Amino acid sequence: MNRKGKVLLVAALVAVVTMAFRVSWNALRDIASAVGADETAATLYPFVVDGLMALALIATLVLTDDARKFALKVLGTYTLASLVLNYVHGLVPALHADGGTVDWTRLADWNPANWALVLLATSLPVGSIYFGSDLVAKVLHHQPTPIPTPVANAEESTETERIRSTADLGESTPAPITAAPLRMPDPVTVAFLKSTVPLKPVPAVAPAPVASIAPRPVAAVSTPPRRATGRLPQVARSPRPKRTPAQLLSEARKVTAGWPDVKVTAEGIRREVHTSPANARMLRDTLLAERATPPA
Fold first, then answer.
1. CA angle 128, 132, 137 (to 5 degrees)
2. pLDDT, tens digit, for every residue of 74-91?
3. Are residues 12 and 133 in the same domain?
4. How far out from the chain centre does Cα 179 lie?
5. Is the residue at 286 inside a domain?
C-alpha cells in the first residue's frame, strides 16, 4: 500500500474511533452523574475510561514480551468495563436525562448488583491513574531491539569463504626455535682465579700412532658383582677361637670374683668377657644362682 492509501486508512480509523467515543461518552457521563459526580467530573469521566483504552492500545504496539501482555490485560479490562457501563446505561431509563444532567440514582434494583456496579464505576478512575502511570513508565524505559542489517551478496561471500577454506589456505609455518644463549663466566672472576690459584702447565702429550694401538680384548661374559649382604669370607673373620659355655663361665667367675651382687649385671659381664648379650645374661643368671646357693 502506498503512502496515500495509508493516510486515508488512518484518517478513517480516527473518524470511527471519534464517533464511537462520542457514543460511549454520553453513557459514561450519565453513569458518573448517577454515582455522585458533579457536572465537570461527569464530563471528564469518559476520557478516564476510554482514554486509558487508547493509551493501552498504543503501549501494546510499542512494548514486547511481559510488558506487552500487561498492556493487553489493561486494554481488555477497561474495554469490558466500558461495555458493562454502556449496557447498564441502556437498561436503566432513569439514567437518560432530558436536560443533560442526571440526579443521583440506583444503577440496578437488586442491591448486590447495584453495589457491584457502583464499585466498578468509582474504581475505574483510580485504576486509570495506576495503570496509566505504569504503562507510560514502561514505554519510556523500553529499549527497542535493533534490527540486523542485511549483508549484501551474502550467498557469494559464503561461497567464497567456503572455497578459500578448502583450497586456498596455505600451510601454517612452524614457529622458529630459538636456542638459549650460553652464558660465559665473568672476566673479573676468571682474572681473580688466575691471580689466586697458580695454574700448572699441562705437558704436551704426543699423539700415538694409530697402528701401534692394539685392540683391547673384551670378555664375553662379565663376572657379576659380589653382593653386599653375603657370607663373610674366612679371611675377614676374627682369628679368636669360639669359646664354649664352660670357658665363658670360667672367665666370668674370675672377672667377677671380687664384685658385689649389685655389680653383677649382664652389661658389665658382656664388657669384661667380650661376649654377646645373650651369653652375658646367661652368665649373670648362673653366677647369681651360684652366689645364692650356700656351699655344701
1. 160
2. 989 988 998 888 888 777
3. yes
4. 41
5. yes
- Residue where a domain terminates, one of 76, 107, 140: 140
Helix %, strand %, coil % for the chain, to 5?
Answer: 60, 0, 40
Reported as a single tens digit per residue, the pLDDT across 196-224 is 555 556 566 666 555 555 556 655 555 66
- 53 exposure class (CB count in 10 Å sphere: 0-12, 13-18, 19+): buried
Residues 102, 70 contacting (CB under 8 angstroms): no
Angle, vertex CA 176, rays to CA 170 and CA 178, nearest 5 = 175
How many helices and strands (H and E) does the chain possess?
A: 9, 0
DSSP 80-135: HHHHHHHHHHHH-GGG--SSS---S--S-SSHHHHHHHHHHHHHHHHHHHHHHHHH
Cα-based torsion angle of the residue sequence 278, 282, 284, 290 in order, rounded to the nearest 10 degrees:
180
Residue 287's domain comprises 246-292
C-alpha cell at 243: 669359646
For residues 42 and 29, the answer to whether their CB atoms sit within 8 Å is: yes
Domain end: 140, 172, 201, which one?
140
249, 273 contact by CB (below 8 A): no
Q: How many residues does the chain have?
A: 296
Judge contact between 39 and 64, C-beta under 8 A: no
| Number of domains into which the chain is organized | 2
With respect to residue 205, please indicate whether it lies within any of the assigned structural domains. no
